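Researcher: Go.
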Amino acid sequence: MNIVLWIIQILVAAAFGLFGFMKVSQPVDALAAMMPWVTAVPALLVPLIGVAELAGALGMILPRLTKIQPNLTAYAGVGLSLVMVLASAFHITRGEFGNLPINLVLLVLSTVVAYGRWPRPQKLAQAPA
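Model: Structure:
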């Protein structure tokens, strides 16, 4: 299961890293050709979403890779799942149903990572009777 989770984490990190980098590195006018919705939100919201996506992408990989606060990977999964729920709702309100498949795939994958990496309580050792 660990290998499957790592594969999913890499895929999710790559997708969010790419989309996040595009949102923080390109002007809104250039993004509008690929993502028409960017003209419907305040200009500062687009790079803010990009920063959140980049942070989530890093959170998918770095905590587990470095073994520093590895539980943060689960929280990154929750955060990215929330981003996808909000993105899906936004696209539905705008009638942009063509965007939903990628939103739903990323929602499912990030939720799988969140569930799979969620900290499990340690079982207490049974005292001999």
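Model: Helices lie at 2-25, 28-32, 45-66, 72-93, 100-117.
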